[in-house]
Amino acid sequence: MTDGTTIAIVEDDDDIRTQLAGYLDGEGFRVIGLSGGAGLDQLLTAGPAPDLIVLDWMLPGEDGLSICRRLRAANGPPVVMLTAKDEDIDRVLGLEMGADDYVSKPFSPRVLLARIRAVLRRAGGAGAATPEAVSERLSVADLVVDLAARTVTTGNPAAEIPLTSAEYDLLHCFVTRPQRVLSRDQLLDWTRGRTADAFDRTMDVQVSRLRHRLDAAGSTVAGLIKTVRNAGYILAAPVKSGAP
After folding, report:
1. For position 235, what pLDDT does the model report?
2. How far apart are CA 80 and CA 196, in angstroms?
3. Where are the alpha helices (DSSP H) in 74-193?
4. What's the pLDDT at 39?
5. CA gap 120, 3 in Å, rounded
6. Low-confidence ranges of the chain (pLDDT < 50)
7. β-strands 79-83, 225-228: how paired?
8. In the chain, how many H helices and how many E strands?
């Protein structure tokens, strides 16, 4: 996984940035250390983009939330937010801005490494499809999900819906388990792994983001992801193999 994988660390604390860069370099990643959003913009303009960005919340000038929002609007690389803010509302806000995961300071480098690897697996689709499903496409209402390519399309002619890795993984859970009530804990485990913090609002935010993304693309599937009170969520429609 680490062969050729580039991580950009955007952190204004020189000690944290240097220590984290050294740790990730020792794990086989190519690391680029940056002190703020201006350096990140230069990196993205010069290209190629890093595979993942570790982004500090409290940065001089433009803060991490604003940067994260811009990255998501431009379908940028996955983001792991790194911050001293540890209240639930702060985590929710970070996720709403488009972060793929959230690690609070002070942090264990091993925990951050686990989060980074989990996000990279989701972004790259590692283990997302079984060999039998490599060429399979699933359709529900006006949506087509290609499990091998990790693409989602809607409309005629078909147009791709740009989803983040976290949004795609959540949709994948629904289309591969249709018409079943899925609890928040199940969705957290399947999409974020055992390193996830199990608090309900995190998954509520993720589902809301997915619905909004589908609705903005004109898909009717957004309205088919139903909330089941005190239980979780359900994709209330059958899913078929192949394109409609």
Report:
1. 94
2. 13
3. 88-96, 109-124, 165-176, 184-192
4. 93
5. 12
6. 1, 125-135, 194-196, 198-200
7. unpaired
8. 8, 12
Backbone angles phi, psi at 163, to 5 degrees: -110, 145
Residue ranges of domains in the chain, CATH in brackets: 6-124 (3.40.50.2300), 131-241 (1.10.10.10)
Do you find a cis peptide bond into 157, omega within 30 degrees of 0?
A: yes
Q: How far lies 115's CA from each of 26, 54, 81, 152, 228, in Å?
A: 17, 10, 10, 25, 29
Looking at residue 200, its pLDDT comes to 47
- CA 111 – CA 54 distance, rounded (Å): 13
Q: Output the six-digit token pair for 199.
A: 């608090």
CA distance 96 to 151: 22
State the pLDDT at residue 124.
66
pLDDT of residue 128: 36
Vertex 85 angle, CA 79 and 91, to 5°: 55
Adjacent-strand bridge partners of 54:
9, 80
Q: State the pLDDT at residue 133.
A: 39
Spatial CA neighbour of 128 closest among 98, 150, 153, 159:
150
